[in-house]
Amino acid sequence: MKIFTCIKQVPGVSEVKIDPKTNTLVRKGIPSITNPMDNNATELALSIKEKHGGEVIALSMGPPQAEEVLRQALAMGADEAYLLTDRAFAGADTLATSHTLGLAIKKILKDSGDEKKYLVICGTQAIDGDTAQVGPELAEELGLPQITYVQKCELKGDKIITERVFRSEETVIIESKLPALISVLKEVNDPRFPTMTGIVNAHEEMEVKYLNANDLKAGKENIGLTGSKTEVFKIFIPEKKGKHVVLEGSVEEMVQQLCNNLKEDKLL
Amino acid sequence: MDFSLTEKQKMIRRVTREFAEKHIAPIAEESDQQSRLDPQVMEEMKKMGYFGTCIPKEYGGAGLHEDTISFCIITEEIGRIDASWSITTGVHASVCAYPIYKFGTEEQKQKFLIPLAKGEKLGVFALTEANAGSDAGGVETNAYLDGDEWVLNGSKIFATNGGIAETLLVVTKTGQKGKRKELTVFIVDTNTPGYSVGVREDKLGVRASNTSELVFQDVRIPKENVLGSVGSGFRIGLQILDYGRILMAAQCVGLGQAALEASIKYANERVQFGRPIGSFQGVQWKIADMGVAVECARLLTYQAAWMCDNGLEYGTMGSMAKLKASEAAMQATHDAVQIHGGYGLMKAYAVERYFRDAKMAEIYEGTSEIQRMVIAQKLLRRGY
Amino acid sequence: MSITVDSELCSGCGACVASCPYGGIEVIDDKACITEDCNLCGACVEACTMDAIIWTKEEVGIEKVDLSQYKGVWVIAEHYKGNIHKVAYQLLGKGRELADTLHVSLTLVILGDAFDDQLEELSMYGADEIIYVKSKILKNYYSDLYTKTLTELITENKPEIVLIGATATGRDFAPRVAKRLNAGLTADCTGLEIDSKTNNLFQTRPTFGGNIMATIRTPNSRPQMATVRPGTFKKPEAKKRKVNIRQIDYDYSEKDSVTKIVKVINREKSKVNLEDAEIIVAGGRGVGKKENFKIIEELAEAIGAEIGGSRVTVELNWIPQDQQVGQTGKTVTPKLYIACGISGAIQHLVGMENSDIIVAINKDPSAPIFNVAHYGIVGDLHKVIPALIENIKKVKSAED
Fold it and tell me: Is the distance from CB of C339 to CB of C357 less than 8 angstroms?
């Protein structure tokens, strides 16, 4: 059974700060990292493989430097890794991205004998875009049942049984036959570190395979900027919230003012 | 000259740093105070392959036997968080496991090396004795041949991992040629009658690392356990120490780095007289000197590692690295405490522990005085 | 679309380099140059102090959709245990505003069961029409059934804008529907506006963890779809309105869905790491004694926060070590940090001063915490906190 995991390389945004003097993003020294939820996805794929057998195939769409996140997946134990890279893929929104990933998965399946039973695991969202759209759109591209916001997943025969977050107070147990696509939350597991042997193997014995638009027989109108339906009109730095003020009045009055301010700041 | 790390080395550094920060950092203070190596962390370290770094994959190791730079990176990154853990894994791998790989027979490798590489058994290099410290040639622990067995008698002190190990390399006197002692290194399984662990030392620094006395009373060792050959102990011993010295230097680089980072953070945060203390020249110069010292130590260490990997004679460079790195760590941690002021004296702040850990490094694995002796002899005799 | 640098205007200051998250621009020989890592995000355009960076937005037209066919604003409601989710009301409020600007109608779409009695009440919040797809099985949420039904309805009725709540449910079916329709979707919007020039919808949303805001548009596809954060817009006043109600009965059964709901279970509130917490309530020496820490816990419960404390509260064993915030504890950056009875010594400040909003409650008006607080209350926390809890509870129940 093939288990695909889709990984994205992102800037480490938790370290992103705004320079108060220039009001711009301070980018120096911010490392590029594997999107955290994609690490969870890879970990889930590996633990399913360890329990039930199969092959873990890691995919990423990005510039050549994204090879690093695929090496990380190989070092964790993935069997194969593919980097989908081409100038024509640049500027893609989630529609174009999911299309490109879908073409790659279809090609890999076709080249290896057209397997019907497989699983695709995505991280719910990436910390730079935060859209949480690629998972469901990829499921649609491949015509697969989707289960999103998964915090637990087990394989049983040709079915997956998942626990999906439904609301803040409730989760739902949902099953689906394979092939299927799931997108996972951080809570689903604690990703392993690649071992030293894993890292040595990933760099000395394994290769990251490159696929470009030609290899995928991708139509220009469906990929990259031209295949995108959403476009960025403008970007701006959000206004810094909150004045610096000491509230006055009776306890009741101060508390009321505070609550009003917090409501305005959308914190209540 | 290419100073850049390979992609593999960069990943090794990043992963080890993240691992150490996640698993070791939260318990570092407690480990030091309780002189204890957390067993759960031990298991995680074994899984990561940190006990078999420099051993080939075919013997259960990580496969970095020809990449000493990577071994140094790992030792440095672990040392940046906790010197005790860095020494535990570094010593085990470099001066117990690695010598068996380098000098052992295939049978010895199968029997002893594989469990060591996997971390199933911990290892010790037992050299120092009550009357033989810097004067290592003065060992009195001795062995005589009785049939097919050697009978070992004596005691070793200050053995790193001594109290928790199952495989020992013991440097023993097996003969005398005029004034010259004949030394042999034996592989000893601790599960042998006559062997016992004596005192466990309560130390100034690297307190979680186990340092113990080992006692041998008529311990019978099969003759197959001779490492190398009878009488080769002095020569092998020096080579073992040469290799281990590079890793101890790496551990000191990590310690110096930790002190530097702590000092920078504090200097930027602590405000006195209306400004961060990092804006005062006195503090700035200390930090500059610290930075230079750590960087020098790192370069010497990596150069020694590179020479080792490229088949060059690296002994003197290793001595220089260990000397510089231990003194850099001492300088950096001393100044780090000073920069922290009163807080630097409090156990709640890590620099207090770094300072104690650094002092140890100026003495173990060859004192700074011995290093100077070795380096001077080399320079005076051969010019360089 | 392309980004170019006018080298005549460029002063080589490098502000653009600092702003680029991708390494897509460099200064070579004192002039900024776009590299091949440019991802066309446009952050440099904003950052440039000389207006030397030009962002050319060409109209990308591949297959031109006949946009004039699409009219109307739709709000898709989700529901739970027989109640419509509050975000639907909020979207009706904003939807009405958008519909009025465009002079089109507003439609509320409900996929469910047993909402017949509620339709009259639902018609009071601005909709001109309610499409009620009724099927017994839709009492529960089914990803594929929602996708199928909505795609068919949208294809048939051609709304130009579709608004959906950005919940685990909405963010599950919205992208699937968008993909099936090949329509642009913007997630988690915090702002919606009509562009007066083109009548297109401008959708504003946070990116990079909220550090950058982006305004998105989808000029060449229909419908323009957006999921919107609950709480972004206000629920409108109820007003009697004439509403056209269209009920469609679908006879779905369980086997029509590719997934099977096995059961629903209650979710335990799992403990969040302080470093991941969105809201933290922290107590200091001013709390007084261990038993008094209870009001900190109550405030945290009321506002949905994690609990932290200054070093002294840990030393005195009022809270465990892993909840300590400060130089020898954790560094946190929540959206809201409420410091109660904490003086604000530097050793604590360095652990929380990068929080988005800091509220301080302290008896001592000269406590240094007030220097970093966005909102300060000078008062006895034992009086202030209970009053605050009351108010918070009132605000929260008004929301629902």
Answer: no
Q: CATH for B123-231?
A: 2.40.110.10
From the list B253, B247, B241, B283, the residue with the least C-alpha distance to B266 is B283
End-to-end CA distance of chain A: 47
Least confidently predicted of B92-101, C249-258, C339-348: C249-258
Calculate how close chain A gets to C146, using CA atoms only, in Å: 12
Element (H, E) at C146: helix C143-157
In B, which residues are within 8 Å of C328 by CB distance? 348-349
β pairing state of C201-207 and C191-194:
antiparallel
Q: Measure the CA–CA gap between B187 and B177, rounded to whole angstroms.
A: 23
Question: What is the rounded average pLDDT of the residues A180-208?
Answer: 96
Of chain A residues 168-197, which have a CB less than 8 A from chain B?
193-197
Q: Say yes or no to pLDDT of C357 above 60.
A: yes
C-alpha to C-alpha distances, C121 to C240, C248, C269, nearest whole angstrom: 9, 19, 33
Closest chain C residue by Cα to residue B262: C327
Q: Strand, helix or coil at B28? A: helix
CATH of C67-256, one of 2.40.50.140, 3.40.50.620, 2.60.40.2890, 3.40.50.2000: 3.40.50.620
Token pair, residue B78, equals: 């672990």
Per the rule left: phi > 0, alpha: psi between -120 and 50, beta: everything else, C208 is left
CA gap B242, B236 in Å, rounded: 10
List the structure tokens of C280: 């933290």
Amino acid of residue A210: Y
- The 3-state DSSP class for residue A42 equals helix
CA terminus-to-terminus distance, chain B = 20
For domain A2-222, give its CATH number from 2.40.50.100, 3.30.700.10, 3.30.710.10, 3.40.50.620: 3.40.50.620
Task: Quote the pTM value.
Answer: 0.88
Nearest to C296 by CA among C384, C391, C200: C384
pLDDT at B24 over 90: yes
- Cα first-last separation, chain C: 44
C-alpha C311/C-alpha C292 separation (Å) is 17
| A204 in B contact zone (CB under 8 Å) | yes
Query: How far does the CA of residue B378 sit from the closest CA of chain A (Å)?
Result: 36
Cβ neighbour number for residue B89 with a 10 Å cutoff: 28
Which tens digits make up the pLDDT trace of C44-59?
A: 887 788 889 987 755 5
What is the residue extent of each domain of chain A?
2-222
Task: Report the C-alpha gap between C88 and C279 in whole angstroms.
Answer: 25
DSSP C197-264: TT-PEEEEEEEGGGTEEEEEE-TTSSSEEEEE-TTSSPPPPP-----EEEEEE----GGGSSEEEEEE
Contact (CB, 8 A) for C299 and C281 = yes
Q: Which member of B313, B352, B365, B369 is catalytic?
A: B365
Give the span between the Cα atoms of C140 and C78, in whole angstroms: 10
Instruction: Return the closest-CA partner of residue C178 out of A137, A101, A183.
Output: A137
Note whether B152 and B170 are within 8 A (CB). Answer: yes
Q: Does residue C316 register a pLDDT over 80?
A: yes
**pLDDT of A67:** 96
Q: What is the pLDDT of residues C89-147, one digit of tens each?
A: 999 999 999 999 999 999 999 999 989 999 999 999 999 999 999 999 998 899 999 99
pLDDT above 90 coverage of chain C, percent:
58
Cα separation, B153 vs B141, whole angstroms: 6
Residue B7 appears among annotated catalytic residues: no
Buried residues in B132-156 as b, exposed as e (16+ CB within 10 A): bbeebeebebbbeeeeebbbbbbbb
**CATH code at B7-117:** 1.10.540.10
